[in-house]
User: What shape does this take?
Amino acid sequence: MKEIHVTKVEEAVKNLCMQAACYLGEDVEGLLKKGLQKEESEFGQYIIQQILDNVELSRTESIAMCQDTGVAVIFVELGQDVHIVGGSFQDAINEGVRRGYQDGYLRKSVVDDPVFKRKNTGDNTPAVIHIDVVQGERLKIMVVPKGAGSENMGALKMLKPAEGLEGVKKFVVKTVMEAGGNPCPPIIVGVGIGGTMEKAAILAKKALTRKAGQHHKDSNYEKLECDLLEEINHLGIGPQGLGGKVTALAVHIEACPTHMATLPVAVNLNCHASRHAEIILFG
Assistant: This one.
């Protein structure tokens, strides 16, 4: 049995919040550089180059790469043989978010009530926390800041099983087409298929945390990812929605079993600042 004090969790989350906001992963940056070579529009090339310059500036100056530093979405893999001591695990995560957004001078965007008061909580808490209990002494924490521009363009549909593969394709492409330039393309497209309504939505968001451009292990889903990416990049939306060949950098799909009478599909889009940072404290 491994023990970890909540203060270590707080510190880890604080650092991850600042890291994710300021340092774009090499995987995403690599796809942007490839996109610069593929883009045929002169203005589209200019936009991607500006994005790459911003990525470098954010890294060297340790400042947020986007003013919208998002809601802090936290994915946790918590080993069943890990014992959290010294307080509440979820409180520790929220305290880490509070400190990270304060110490990193990151914009606080969370409001306390979604409909009526909509008063800013002042510290970007509460975080949205997803915890998977796994075997062993593993504790992995991933912080995924999710901005509203891309989050607002997500969609979910309960397809009929008879709509099948073509129905999935049509829905994903339609969602991207209707989003246009709002999610700040070039984007990464997360797709969740199966489970139930809420499970598909979580899968779509989790798909965005995969190493950018890394395909699904199942060859059928890998082909579907490639087909969707090609169709999306034929839409002509282009960088920042101003026309061009590179609308999306990658399509990531996650799937799971579902009821025989339904086919849930969720789409979650990430802007070019596809931000996430993780740490493994144990395991």
